[in-house]
């Protein structure tokens, strides 16, 4: 039975939303957080294991130094207070996908303390997200539920567990309760998680592929009327798309508002986002921190990161995404909208590499945001997954600039590359794509077009240039699209001037 929902505009007019996000970022180390088991996405199930990651008696964890360095870099990028001394704790809970049946996390002594991230919204305004902590922990494995209709545990007749992911290092970035976003709450949350994705990629510490589980978010939200205490929150677990995060908040605000308006109470529980139903669904009653019985892990000493080492890591930080976008926007002469579209399409790196390969900024943007983007959308893949790269696009642009291809032939060349026919030069050679530059051939084609269209020729001679496109089109058809439009226009002007 569908839950009762209030209209979103009415909900945010009557209630103030308070939200929080727990963003889980898997670190791209070669081995796990506490053992030398190799990490590889898509590997044979239960093949990336050691006695430590299996939780076998007598096995002892050893901290992965690179994971700690990666976490410090992230803490620095998020303006966190970096603790010289931090501690791992055991988080006790029944984890069917964690062999040792507890998680090694950080609780009261995290590596990264309070920080913040200024997030730029679509209209250019800035919203500050206050961060409570960004602590290090190891990930759980993966459950696959078999027999149900949607792959979830409801309706399943059995479950399979893959422990390969168990023990993979991750950082959990926990915000403070965020107030003041109002109706823009979903937008702010989506922009924040996108900003986190961009930062960890810039730092080179995570692949941040949400579809592979490298990055996901727990979404918390509650409602209260102005001047009243904060309400009871729900927590929607493991949302792994940006749109899913935004839709989760929109749905939960509408759901909770309807319950409160009817005099009901919000249950503090975990929920999950059902993409098929475009709704959240209830899970278990939410546990509080004391239910996890945190205590310092007796097998691990405290982590000591010296001030000198933190300063060394700080010196190696790259340009942050927000500053980089501002610089590139100015260098390339893009408008706010053009830059925002490139960022949203995850095309910024591709455009930059295409420009570095010799293309103009406008040319690089035209291809990646035009023909190639449409192809990616049709195939349902990312731009990076298509069989075309920055060097290919720059080569096509070079052929246009040299006059060897016109726009139509260039599009056909790009289509050939996308179809797997080879590099641009190979596609051009295979199909014989080449702009007709022979003046005699073009003049003959123009004369034939004017002769076949005497009414248009008369209009052109009288000074009406609007029908020029019809003559150019006729010449293009006659030359199978291989004429240069500018050269055709020049010849037409010469003919009508006689």
In a nutshell, what does this entry contain?
This protein has helices spanning 8-14, 65-77, 185-203, 242-261, 307-315, 321-332, 336-344, 348-356, 361-369, 371-379, 390-401, 407-418, 424-431, 439-452, 454-461, 468-478, 485-496; strands at residues 16-26, 85-86, 89-92, 102-105, 115-120, 126-138, 142-146, 158-162, 169-175, 215-224, 234-239, 269-274, 279-285, 295-296, 303-304.
What topology does this entry show?
Layout: H1 8-14, E1 16-26, H2 65-77, E2 85-86, E3 89-92, E4 102-105, E5 115-120, E6 126-138, E7 142-146, E8 158-162, E9 169-175, H3 185-203, E10 215-224, E11 234-239, H4 242-261, E12 269-274, E13 279-285, E14 295-296, E15 303-304, H5 307-315, H6 321-332, H7 336-344, H8 348-356, H9 361-369, H10 371-379, H11 390-401, H12 407-418, H13 424-431, H14 439-452, H15 454-461, H16 468-478, H17 485-496
